Amino acid sequence: MKSFAIKTLRNRYVIPFEIDTDSQSFEEVCGRIADHQDDLFAFLGREKSRKKSRWVRQSLEKGEQDVYQYIRDEFSGEEDFGQGTEIEKAGCFWHLEMNRPVKLLFMEDASAPEQGIVVTIHDMGLYLFRSGVGFLWYEIKPVREIQDSASLIRFQYAFKELNRGYSNKLWMETKSIEAPEGYTDQYIPFLLGNWIAERLAFLNPSYQTARKNSFVKNLHKVCKLPEKELTESLPSFCPDKALLFTYAVFRRASDWQMGKEEIRTAYYLTSGYTETYAMSDRVVSEARSPFANVLWMASREGCGYYAWVDDKNEQFFTGNLYSKIINDYFLLYIRTLYQSYSLLRFSVKISKLLPNDVNKYLLVSDETEAISGKIDRISTEINLFLVKSIATSVSHIHHQNEFYQYLCEKFTIEEDVKSVTAGLDSLCRIQHETVRKKQEEAEKKAREIQEQTEKREKDADNQFQIGLGFMTFLTGISALTDAFTLVTEFTYRDLNGARLAALWGMFGFCILVIVLSVLIFSLSVSRLWRNKDRDGKKGNQKVKKDSAGRRKKRSREKESGKESNTQDKA
Length: 570
Hints:
By secondary structure, this protein is α+β, with helices and mostly antiparallel strands.
């Protein structure tokens, strides 16, 4: 394989992770980051540095930027969290003010660390988003020993593996750290996966690609220390791989032309592969070349910007573009990662929260409203994310928009959006219909209970009216009997004046009682018949209402069937 001389190199490594946003708010997590002080050289829980590094929330790097201002603001912000101004931000950016760089020894094939080359981690940053997705990145300072593309390919392949216990690629001098008791060697094995897990332990994150910590296994190869003590003081799980972001400028010959060897170099550097991975012709056809001497390459493992220069354009690519690569292109890469991992997080969330039993969505039950609430919340979160975080145009410069669209294409953003939202919208409509049926059943049951209560009250009232009429009837009979007796007294006896006046009074009272009894009896019978007529009318109205309801239901079903047929044809 052909090798190209390196003129300029920027290597960044990105570690995706997630935080729990259900039990803590975004502002609470930001507060923990602001309060955290990091000892980059702590080992097994032992503190080494007196001056600790700290995280500072800030805007992106200053300098010429062509990405839209609102895109940059969405990912960063001033140190004003807690004041309410950050509520419109999708995330924030934190930079680690390191008290000193982390110097490591990288051993490619040698059996002793003394024969390794110096590697320095000199810059670190952290992106955190409201969706629960975060990215820790660190930049490796270019080393003198890596001067050509072949050496860089071997370095990328080894350096992206963060948690491999079978080979000690990285070492650190024991004078830089507080080594374990009993360890006397000048160098000690170093695993980036364990080191990164210790850096982020205060956030209690979970990693997309994680495996059991291999540091103890690695350490036991060179020293005999109590395994239990080491295991208890180390993170249990660590990130396994790092995503790559590479900006490499190569020197070209006078007769240079873009060919398959250049694409092969970009392919291996982007994914962290070696020549053991044979490149297919499909990669050649998918490579993107915006300019005659520039190649873009992107995959799930990484992203790269590669240029081949001569004396005419070397200054531009090694000077002017050097800072813009981070200000613009790396920002667009982080944005694409944010979209991809957020959509993945939504997919996992849907899978965990929503049951797989079809009957729970179609049948009315006590879980209906709870499931509907979960669907509404997830749907709202996704739609808000799509409105605020998915964009088709991101820059004033055409080729930067082209670069962003190329990244979205390689990360299948559009397909992932359809995958997350296609079934959820239909499921939301089905669940709303089920909730409506439940509400109708509850209302129907309430009406039945009310009707039964009213019927009992009417029956009691009717019985009271019958009893009242019967008592009135008896009272009228009694009054009539008394009146008849008085008439007999008038007819057959010769009474004096006083006796006659009393009898006339009693006779008038009996007549009044008879009239009132007839009136009350008439009113009771009339009210009883009116109740029966009203019950009959309500029954007819209920039958008509039920018939109208059934007609409306059949109409909705027909319209739903027509809509479904139309969608199927579309």
